[in-house]
């Protein structure tokens, strides 16, 4: 029962107390800069994900879907 507002789900490129950017329905250029090469070394970056669950009005199991896509530039 209840919902978690999308404004309570945030992300950041650095560790923060509660994310800096709220979710959107469109693309956002994070300028994350994961390099590409043809070696076997994995190339990774960290994307921090935060969810603030309301103290009241949310009971039971909550579910949803978030899509994160990378675009080569």
Notes on the protein architecture:
The chain is an all-beta fold. The protein contains no helices and three strands. It has a three-stranded antiparallel sheet with strand order 2-1-3, with no helix packed on it. A hairpin with an 8-residue loop joins strand 1 and strand 2. It is elongated, with a radius of gyration of 16 Å. The relative contact order is 0.37. The model has no long low-confidence stretch (mean pLDDT 76).
Q: Mean pLDDT, nearest integer?
A: 76
- The radius of gyration is 16 Å
Are there runs of 5+ residues with pLDDT below 50, and where?
none
**Silhouette:** elongated
| Sheet having the most strands | 3 strands, antiparallel
Question: What structural class do helix, strand and pairing data support?
Answer: mainly beta
Distance between the termini: 42 Å
Q: Give the strand tally.
A: 3
Q: Could you estimate the helical fraction of the residues in percent?
A: under 10%
In DSSP terms (H or I, runs of 4 or more residues), the helix count works out at: 0
What is the beta-strand fraction?
5-15%
SSE pattern: EEE
Arrangement of strands in the largest sheet: 2-1-3
Assembly state (oligomeric): single chain
Give a short overview.
The protein is mostly beta strands and 73 residues long. It contains no helices and 3 strands. It has a 3-stranded antiparallel beta sheet with strand order 2-1-3, with no helix packed on it.
Describe the structure using short key phrases.
3-stranded antiparallel β-sheet, mainly beta, 73 residues
């Amino acid at each position: 029962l209840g919902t978690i507002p999308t404004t309570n789900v945030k992300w950041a490129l650095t560790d923060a107390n509660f994310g800096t950017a709220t979710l959107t329905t469109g693309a956002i250029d994070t300028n994350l800069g994961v390099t590409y090469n043809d070696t076997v070394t994995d190339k990774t970056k960290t994307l921090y994900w935060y969810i603030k669950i309301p103290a009241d009005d949310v009971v039971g199991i909550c579910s949803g879907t978030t899509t994160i896509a990378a675009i080569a530039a």
